[in-house]
Design a protein that fits this description.
Structural class of chain B: mainly beta
Helix content of chain A: under 10%
Order of helices and strands of chain B: EEEEEEEEEEE
Structural class of chain A: mainly beta
Helix content of chain B: under 10%
Number of helices of chain B: 0
Number of helices of chain A: 0
Oligomer: heterodimer
Shape of chain A: globular
Strand content of chain A: over 45%
Shape of chain B: globular
Number of strands of chain A: 12
Strand content of chain B: over 45%
Radius of gyration of chain B: 13 Å
């Protein structure tokens, strides 16, 4: 079974609008971390936001917020006020278990390609 | 803001040649990793490194691959005899506490 599911292969959003990128995950481990990364066409993998499984509040980083719904096992990324530079591939990822355990237990979803329209 | 640095950004090599990919992790980070991403596909774990030794490796990381931290700052991935299927983007990463940070990657093309 897939550990991370991103059901939107591609998304379009108008500049200055908000957009939500979906991510659902599957784990039986009570301790885990959820991440979003941005990969522009240049290829680098840019860390956006992190949510720990025990965090009480949803994570926010500037224009990025993570809508964490633990019971539904979803961790959607919300980008407010989209900019042209937000056009990129977005990956949801999950680390299961220990906070230093980024080996086999760190998995990526297939990604969502976001295109921001002027 | 500190960042993970990788060199070179692009590497072209002939099949069968050795390549060394270099990384400078964020200082004070303790765990280091190599991942790769074949074009258009998922990011795959290769190896993790802690306290100057491999702590975990995937089945992709066979005898053709090796890692070392020769001087306390650089972290290298060596591929001894490259194959066509080694063509990919290779990412170095390091983590501290709960967050994992990636370098900008090395695009390896094997001809």
């Amino acid at each position: 079974a897939q550990k991370i599911t991103q059901t939107q292969p591609g998304m379009f959003v108008q500049e200055k609008e908000a957009v939500t990128l979906d991510c659902t995950y599957d784990t039986s481990d009570p301790s885990y971390g959820l991440f979003w990364y941005k990969q522009p066409s240049s290829g680098e993998m840019i860390f956006l936001i992190y949510q720990g499984s025990y965090d009480q509040q949803n994570a926010t980083e500037g224009r990025y917020s993570l809508n964490f719904q633990k019971a539904r096992k979803s961790a959607n990324l919300v980008i407010s006020a989209s900019q042209l530079g937000d056009s990129a591939m977005y990956f949801c990822a999950m680390r299961e278990g220990r906070v230093d355990n980024y080996g086999q237990n760190f998995v990526f979803g297939p990604g969502t390609r976001l295109s921001v329209l002027p | 803001e500190p960042e993970v640095t990788q060199t070179p950004s692009h590497q072209v090599t002939q099949m069968g040649q050795e390549v060394i990919l270099r990384c400078v992790p964020i200082s004070n980070h303790l765990y280091f990793y190599w991942y790769r991403q074949i074009l258009g596909q998922k990011v795959e774990f290769l190896v993790s490194f802690y306290n100057n030794e491999i702590s975990e490796k995937s089945e992709i990381f066979d005898d053709q691959f090796s890692v070392e931290r020769p001087d306390g700052s650089n972290f290298t991935l060596k591929i001894r005899s490259t194959k066509l299927e080694d063509s990919a983007m290779y990412f170095c990463a390091s983590n501290f506490n709960e967050k994992l940070f990636f370098g900008s990657g090395t695009q390896l093309s094997v001809l």
